[in-house]
Amino acid sequence: MKCRKCGEKAVINMRQHKLALCETHFLDWVPEQTQRFIEKYAMFTPEDKILVAISGGKDSLSLWDILIRLGYQADGLYIGLGIDGGVGYSDESHRLSQKFADERGLHLRVVEVEENYGATIPELAVISNRGRDKPCSVCGLSKRYIMNRAAYDGGYNVLATGHNLDDEAAVLMQNTLHWAGGYLVRQAPVLAATHSGLARKVKPLCRFYEREMAAYAIVRGIEYIYDECPHAVGSTTIYYKEILNQLEEKSPGSKLQFYLSFLQAKEQGLFAPQSVEVELHACDKCGQPTSAPGECSFCRMWEKVRVVKGGRLPVEVLSPMSEV
Ligand code: Q46
Ligand code: ZN
Ligand code: ZN
Prior knowledge:
The chain is of the alpha/beta class. The protein is built from 13 helices and ten strands. The N and C termini lie far apart (62 Å).
């Protein structure tokens, strides 16, 4: 297979675009495309201060790399979740994220959940009695909160995440199968800040296939954590990704078309905007915007940790206290 631009040996063949590219041209093509998406969806400009959520995986590190190559002001945010899973997942992802930043002279902000709030995410799942084996719901809630908070405290007006097309198409499929109108309305490459205390959320990689991002990271020599979070194993998202891959295999481009047709349908008004605007209040405790008056769900959840742990008790001791 030869590069369509120069005839050299291609490193990737993208059947959905009928495009094969060599190393040099692929490394040019990815940022060019990203810039197109940034402009098309009016994500941000060089004046914006961007915080990139870094997990240590190929997507987030590639995103950071691309934004810096394009000349944007982008710092990283790493959230230490305290997940081991027998593979030292959090330690290794932190090490690789830090290494990436240090080698390039970039600024990585680090928030260690245990140090800041008193428990790791798996401990929090046990203490709050929300998903003992699957800490994903407390994890998601905590990550969203910490990202908003870090963006606000650091004066960033844009929060960028490395979601790729496979992620977006899988979520879209899940939401469509459930006709989850509220989620469908909010699924977009850009979510405007709905409150002065919140940053705009953007997904500049949402039109790249996962394999394109993996190829980018490898060709660019980015060292990333290969393992997924151990708690992602067996998730419904992975199941939907497999189904979509089967579809893609039979009909190249179907994943991209599924997602783009959805965005187009939204633009054409297929989904009516929600009539009831959620009113946001400041949390009594932390001041972050929240939909319910009083304390936000993050503060309420971590309050249980404070009550239960007081001192630093190992989590085994705490297991019977699920009704706290
Ligand atoms: S939510 Fe669940 Fe992820 Fe948190 S516990 Fe791991 S898999 S990291 S995207
Ligand atoms: Zn070429
Ligand atoms: Zn709060």
